[in-house]
Amino acid sequence: MSTGHLACPGCGAAQSMRYALKALGPNTMVVIPACCWSIIAGPFPYSALGVPLMHTAFETAGAAASGVRASLDMQGKQDVTVMAWAGDGGTFDIGIQSLSAAAERNENIIYVCYDNEAYMNTGIQRSSSTPLYAWTTTTPEAYPKQDKKKNIDMIMAAHRIPYVATTTNAHPHDLMEKFKKAKEMKGTRFIHILAACIPGWRIASDEAVQVPRMAVDSKVFPVFEIFDGEKVVINIEPKNIPVKDYLKKQSRFRHLKEDQIAKIQTEVDKNWEKLVKMANR
């Protein structure tokens, strides 16, 4: 990944791509549907990525990556890693059908969701990844999102694919180790990255590492792996900071009342207990 890309200063998605390609190496092909990274990479015929890049339609990352994989296999190029790289809109919502189909077939691809928790590229609209009570332009402060974030990791684990993992742009060593591990596996590997968005989260550009770390330490975004849909391994033990500290760091939550914060804390604690039970089975 070179300089000259078009990401916002501090963009967690840009940091994540840099770490991912550093781990995977140059023998990689990237498939990107409509998302922030459609812009970040630069306008055709230029690209900030030093590997082959295919832009595809919003809903087709799973299908397009499957096609690229099939083409490479027909040419005997099994040593090339195919990585689909999609946002939460193209994964949780619009692209979940082609992703699920690819996972059901256990296509030999790495599918990455860089999750900034809204449709950021088109103006910060709510997605099914947007957290409970969060502000977006379609869920304004007077009418914040009333639904919980979709649990995409357990949806993917239910496909019993070889590997599901979570990480963040603020944990580069964990992120790169997971990509190296995924590279050595066969079948569908799903990596979910919480990637800070400066304008969407309403944070300063120099807070793009601190805030995702707080998401992990507050248990809002646990970092773990699931192997073959069954074995759960928690990779980072959270520092157990109050969820309130994480929420108050972002202006997209500045409208929250104490009872709403308490409800989020209760939900986070419940989800963490479930995850720990799964890891201890």
Write a structural description.
It is a single chain. With 281 residues, the protein is of the alpha/beta class. The chain has one domain: Rossmann fold. The chain has 11 helices and 8 strands. It has helices spanning 12-24, 36-40, 61-74, 89-93, 96-104, 152-157, 172-183, 198-201, 210-217, 243-248, 258-279, and strands spanning 28-32, 53-55, 81-87, 110-115, 163-168, 189-194, 224-227, 231-234. An 8-stranded mixed sheet has the order 2-1-3-4-6-5-7-8, with helices on both faces. The longest helix is centred in the C-terminal third of the chain and has 22 residues, at 258-279. The model has no long low-confidence stretch (mean pLDDT 97).
Main-sheet strand order equals: 2-1-3-4-6-5-7-8
Distance between the termini: 40 Å
In DSSP terms (H or I, runs of 4 or more residues), the helix count works out at 11
**What's the CATH architecture?**
3-Layer(aba) Sandwich
Largest sheet: 8 strands, mixed
Mean pLDDT, all residues: 97
Order of helices and strands: HEHEHEHHEHEHEHHEEHH
Q: How much helix is in the residues? A: 25-40%
What is the domain total for the residues?
1
**Any idea what the CATH superfamily is called?**
Thiamin diphosphate (ThDP)-binding fold, Pyr/PP domains
CATH topology title = Rossmann fold
Please indicate the percent range of residues in DSSP E strands (runs of 2 or more): 5-15%
Low-confidence stretches: none
Q: Regarding CATH, which class?
A: Alpha Beta
